[in-house]
Design brief:
With 364 residues, this protein is an alpha/beta fold. 38% of the residues lie in helices and 16% in strands.
Length: 364
């Protein structure tokens, strides 16, 4: 019953087979191999656009290097106050951009609101010599609350950003999960909605270690080869990244894996929703579930073998979801490898922990 993270499980068999196949013989290094070339070509086909795509082994590298390509050291990157680049990258965006400032925007459910973006931009007028200069808007899809932006919501935010001469970056660590949950194409969810650069995740959805930085305007990528190399993320045996991404996108594997993860999350959320004492903090939209539950139930679940994370709510949500002293908030994440039997066992343990204890019988 491991619901700690979609990073916790191994790689999909198809990905492992692709790596093994690429291991035979020799190939040119640093991405000059046929697997990487084919992977970049299939990215163009999937997104219906000629892109400049670069493979890296980690999501942190994808986000930090993408932002470094879009902002000067004296720039400002606007993002949600609870965004992954703000909370969980150990300062990598600031490091790789040589000091650009991350500016958080508080908004409900992990989604930046247009009014909030306008208000924050008004506080950072362009040309003010004492302030960092507006450079990038970074969005997350899915968000850190497991919620999703619709394509039209992305387009509205991107239009505001572009109107203020900002580039728009999308952290798509769970892009596949967000995509299959909505009636939109990859193109509609990205460049057609105004995204300039996408950090396209594969690791959380079946890859061993592979992400892509996709520039929908290749002109914005003119220095990225050097930034990736200087940052230590140009793999000499780059064919193993290319093999992963090629297998990931071939035959719609990435979409099938994401659909499985989302379906398992929906099954888990439905089973937990009617249990007394459990409250969903946000609707389950993709493959993450955020719950409030009694500490006694948490103890019973962990004792029964369940693994998951206790989760701190963003500042914008803490007042709205003020918990009692005997309750905690947690996150459950499913993946392509989540077994239905584990879901059923988890739900059964939660139900058992929710039952009121029976008073001992007294002798007459």
């Amino acid at each position: 019953m491991d619901f700690a993270s979609d990073n916790s499980v191994g790689a999909a068999p198809e990905i492992l087979a692709a790596i093994a196949a690429a291991n035979a013989g020799a190939a040119l290094s640093y991405g000059a191999d046929p697997w990487t070339a084919k992977a970049c070509a299939i990215i163009d086909a999937v997104f219906e656009k000629k892109c400049a795509s670069f493979l890296v082994p980690t999501g942190t590298a994808a986000n930090a290097l993408a932002l470094a390509a879009l902002t000067p050291p004296y720039g400002a990157v606007f993002c949600h106050s609870g965004a992954h680049i703000m909370e969980d990258e150990c300062g990598a965006p600031e490091f790789f951009t040589a000091g650009a400032k991350l500016v958080g925007i508080d908004s409900a459910a992990g989604k930046i609101a247009p009014a909030g973006l306008r208000g924050k931009l008004a506080a950072f007028p362009r040309g003010a010599v004492n302030q960092v200069q507006p450079a990038v808007l970074s969005l997350s899809q899915a968000t850190e609350c497991g919620t999703l932006y619709r394509a039209d919501e992305i387009a509205e935010l991107a239009a505001i950003a572009h109107g203020h001469e900002l580039a728009v970056h999308l952290d798509g660590a769970r892009f596949a999960n967000a995509l299959v949950a909505q009636a939109a194409s990859p193109a509609e969810m990205s460049w057609k909605a105004g995204i300039d650069v996408l950090s396209f995740g594969a690791t959380k959805n079946g890859a061993l270690a592979c992400e892509a930085v996709i520039f929908f305007d290749p002109g914005k990528a003119k220095n990225f080869l050097y930034q990736r190399k200087r940052g230590g993320h140009a793999l000499s045996k780059g064919r193993f990244l290319g093999a992963q991404m090629l297998a990931y996108l071939s035959d719609d594997l990435w979409l099938r894996l994401a659909r499985k993860a989302n379906a398992q999350a929906a099954k888990l959320a439905a089973g937990l929703g009617d249990i007394p004492g459990i409250a969903l903090i946000w609707p389950c939209a993709a493959n993450e579930i955020f719950l409030e539950l009694p500490r006694t139930m948490d103890q019973a679940l962990r004792k029964g073998g369940a693994h998951y994370y206790e989760w701190s709510l963003p500042d914008a949500e803490s007042a709205r979801h003020a918990m009692c002293d005997d309750s905690i908030s947690i996150r459950l994440a499913t993946s392509f490898a989540t077994e239905t039997a584990d879901i059923e066992r988890f739900i059964a343990l939660a139900k058992a922990a929710a039952r009121p204890s029976r008073s001992p019988k007294t002798s007459s």
